Amino acid sequence: MKLSHVVVLAFNLSFAASRAQPVLKVTGSSDSQALTAKTAAQTISVDLLGQPLSRKARQLLEKAQHAANAGDHARAIGFLETVHAKYPESDAWTQSMLGVEYLKTGQFTSALHSLEQAVLLLPRDAVDRSNLGFALAATGQYDRAEVELRRAIALDHDNLKTRELLNVVLAANALKPSTASQPGASANVVSSR
User: Fold this and answer.
1) Dist. CA 104–CA 73, nearest whole Å
2) Is the sign of the CA dihedral 104, 107, 110, 113 positive or negative?
3) Helices and strands in the chain: count of H runs, count of E runs
4) For the chain, which residues score pLDDT lower than 50?
5) Which among 14, 3, 1 has a CA at the least distance from the CA of 106?
6) In 3D, which of 193, 13, 21, 40 has the Cα closest to residue 96?
7) Greatest CA separation found in the chain?
8) What are phi and psi of 147, to 5 degrees?
9) CA 112 to chain centre
10) SS3 of 170, please?
11) Does the global pTM surpass 0.85?
């Protein structure tokens, strides 16, 4: 199996971990059961709910989510970048969504940057850590990916998708040549901001 095939497999596994509905609407009691059923498999951490989200930022995030659900990822990215620029206090919401949209469009370096920011803002969010692990693997940083995926599993030990992704990363890591046997080789390091 070529290493590129391992990454493609991981890509397909990772998206079940993304938040499909990160923006919750407060509705009347008649709508609450429908909303609960629609979002049963999706979670939003208490840490995220405590983050600022202005009305205008929420409206733009809803537009981004609608575009993403329609498959218009470029438009979703545009909305999310606007929220980031105009309402940076909402980055705990924005960076996670932006990272997922970048992953879906194959912009792995941008996804890595956004998901690193999301993890800095919400260090106990298993979904962000899982998606960061995927972004790291997609950029060839398997050792760092393994660390993030293990952290995600520690936060949510029942997440089978993250476990599957970790297994793919471990397999990819086993296939890569050892840098110790190559003179002058060094590990890939992404600098922190």
Assistant:
1) 7
2) positive
3) 10, 0
4) 1-42, 180-193
5) 14
6) 21
7) 67
8) -60, -50
9) 9
10) helix
11) no
